[in-house]
């Protein structure tokens, strides 16, 4: 993706505050004043300095002792609200010597807010879909597949169904799962969070579900982000995995059937339609999630903007979104915070579209190839060019370079991440990292799960794909490269911590590894995708085993004994015609050699690219 420098002309944050902007409630304003009064003059100066170092615009002109005005600006721009007190809790309180007093004041505010019962906002535009899926669950088949392209709101709708389910419901995120053992493990973690059972196969899942069903009339099991198990990519492994999953789910449903009615319902979400035929009969009901209707899109955007009067050009902005909630979420903060008018936003996008079209006419095939390679197949397939320009506009209108750099760096995370993990990648103090995180959150670049016990941030998959493409471009390449180094170091450290836990608490160690498996895989992949050493993806599992061994065993002589014994076992298996151990061991040993080679290579200033043809490497035990 080629980012146009001219789009970086930033109308700085907060410079256009309209007179009709919603005012801060007296109750919330009192909280801001009380918290400010808990800080000393020196502490206030420190907090204000952190804010001014991060933001441009009106924040830069604030006086060094005027924290209250900064908090007011935060509130007007959506960084702070009575529903989101993160900056007060994780920035202001941390820099105060009266942390406990501030925390208590915030808790009192939360309790008083609970007394003022605020009606929960219903999910707009998906009422028909919700009713249709509920009706399907009342039918004969107990498994429903909710599918549709990225950015339509499948997970949001699935969570809404869980909230409205009359019995008990539980959600299991299957992102990154490629083996059935991982499915069992994650379902069991949801069923048995206290880890009273340490078996992870089909039988304990059945036993725990029976207990749950005895407590509730019907149970809904949401298996979210199950794309790798849909059987859609055509590979033998994907088809086998899909067959095993469908067999497992059908047996679960059969076990929970009483008087010909299953008391277990399963909701699968995926981008493509599940291959759900089993026992020569349909096993799954389907519901395709489609784009929002224009009226629903308009209502959602109007609500997100929060203006009483309709903005000019609303119809054109709605048309731009093509009914995708994720695009509406990108546009809404720009209009709500009055960073740009709708007319200017549309005008810029129209100009960019005209430029793209003229470039494609000049060199159609080349332009198409470049765009496809730079934007990535997954991104270009999910959103069109106009919507992609909305993402670009959002990115360049972030409050400062710090926010743009942070968005690119943090897009490395494949799973929800903590403020502390973000601080490591950004090489920032946690209290300052939270400013960046909440700033990105206010622009809908990041989101948090409001129902989670701890604050974890995450990117929508399309947002992450877009930011990855930006990071791989020439403008942010250096920022992205440094972030990759820090990311790799962070997860190598986490691996050592997990290895140290294995003897004391194997289940917790495995859980933490499994939960962050995608991040571990990326961290392992980063050093091996450098210019001086290239290892094929199919050897990642062996590389992970080698790293785990290195993390667990400090003595290099002991490590050599282990790898030598593996190699000797591989030779014996090879002689007797047994291939499994031989293949795994030879590849693992070779990866072990590569690991040591990598550390040697990093001390050299320049090395040629080295490929890893493990399949042709005739390694013997004597090699070790």
Total DSSP E strands:
11
Count of helical stretches: 27
Q: Indicate the mean pLDDT.
A: 78
Largest sheet: 5 strands, parallel
Query: Strand portion, in percent?
Result: 5-15%
Task: Explain this structure.
With 624 residues, this protein is of the alpha/beta class. The chain contains 27 helices and eleven strands. The protein has helices spanning 26-37, 41-54, 67-76, 86-92, 99-115, 127-137, 154-164, 180-191, 202-215, 236-255, 294-305, 314-321, 325-336, 342-362, 364-375, 377-382, 385-396, 401-410, 419-426, 430-442, 461-471, 477-501, 506-515, 517-528, 540-552, 556-575, 580-601, and strands spanning 143-147, 168-173, 219-224, 257-258, 261-262, 264-270, 277-278, 281-282, 285-288, 447-448, 457-458. A hairpin with a 2-residue loop joins strand 7 and strand 8. It starts with 25 loop residues before the first helix and ends in a 23-residue tail after the last helix. Mean pLDDT is 78; it is low at 1-21, 365-377, 531-535 and 579-624.
Task: Please write out the topology.
Blueprint: H1 26-37, H2 41-54, H3 67-76, H4 86-92, H5 99-115, H6 127-137, E1 143-147, H7 154-164, E2 168-173, H8 180-191, H9 202-215, E3 219-224, H10 236-255, E4 257-258, E5 261-262, E6 264-270, E7 277-278, E8 281-282, E9 285-288, H11 294-305, H12 314-321, H13 325-336, H14 342-362, H15 364-375, H16 377-382, H17 385-396, H18 401-410, H19 419-426, H20 430-442, E10 447-448, E11 457-458, H21 461-471, H22 477-501, H23 506-515, H24 517-528, H25 540-552, H26 556-575, H27 580-601
Parallel strand pairs: 1-6, 1-9, 2-3, 3-6
Antiparallel strand pairs: 4-5, 7-8, 10-11
